[in-house]
Structure prediction request, 338 residues.
Amino acid sequence: MSTYGMALVGSGSAVPAARVSNTRLSERVDTNDDWIRSRTGIAERRICSPDEPLTPLATRAAEAALAHAGWAAEDLDLILMATSSPDDLFGTAPRVQGALGAKNAVAFDLTAACSGFLFALITAGQYLRSGAMRRALVIGADQLSRWVDWDDRTTCVLFGDGAAAVAVEACPADADGLLGFRMRSDGSRNGCLTLAQTETHHSVLSGVDAQIGGFAPLRMNGQEVYKFAVREVPAVLKELLESTGTEASALNWLLLHQANQRILDAVADRFAIPHERVLSNLASYGNTSAATIPLMLDEAVKDGRIQPGDLIASSGFGAGLSWGGALLRWSGPQGAAT
Ligand code: ACO
Prediction:
């Protein structure tokens, strides 16, 4: 058993103002509101304009989480930012750190697509549980609007932009809010979902060629990813519940990566979890990649659905392929914890 635990004590989120409805998308690609709603549950998504990069969006989410936790930026030891659409390939987390004025925090990015937030939360937990650090901000932020092919109706209708953050701090081991976790990767199926480099070469010197950096738009085999999700997510959650001795009926909430309402429903049915205990905001935001889980968490915390002491089973899944699960207990801001 670790010396310390990790308490989840604050949350915050930020989304761009521009809403794009399904009907608006049908002006661009051959689709319609009925197809998108019935196949995915999505009604609209938020899209960043060209002058809205990821850093200010993530910074707004981070500031909201700090305010909710009642912390100053200087209190932070760590800022871990899960993103697959950084402003800077060298790292966007340091830009957020600078914007926040979190001068005591080390800040770096973690890339694991739609599993990114969960992987980052679990990673932050290791620093806190070991006693190496005391306070961390875990951010999930993506703007895949910059990377989808807006002429590919099979993918462009699915994604939206957003950012959200969770404040976590070291606590006594018996108050640990990370009750168990699992993380998995299968790179042999990487080709199912990619945002890969283009292959454009240029001659640098006589006999020396190099590749010009750049990325091709997101490509996905939707059916393969769907089958992967409905097979692996229940399996990893089953392992998690068994290893922690938790009955599905004891869960207050199922908080899954928001990719498709049919995936949420299939996983809930597998564990006989009533649909009213399955958190979903897909209709409003679509799939915001690394942001979906904290965006949903923040919404449910702020509207009072998630209460201090609530038990939450969470699972992220997506490109890599990567997937994982975590059994979490929400504490809320200090003083509110049960
Ligand atoms: N509008 C209208 N018709 C469409 C659209 C659209 N936007 N997109 C596809 N279609 C058509 C197809 O062309 C196909 O037509 P056909 O039968 O004439 O060939 C038909 O609809 C059915 O297509 P399917 O691909 O079989 O549709 P499906 O029911 O599988 O739904 C979807 C597609 C929504 C993409 C689904 O497969 C899915 O959700 N997959 C999982 C995606 C996911 O979870 N991603 C998570 C990871 S994201 C990350 O990590 C970054």
The pocket of acetyl coenzyme *A is lined by residues 31, 35-36, 39-40, 113-114, 153-154, 157, 193, 222-223, 225-226, 229, 259-260, 287, 289, 318-319 (CB under 6 Å). The chain has ten helices and 15 strands. The chain has a mean pLDDT of 96.
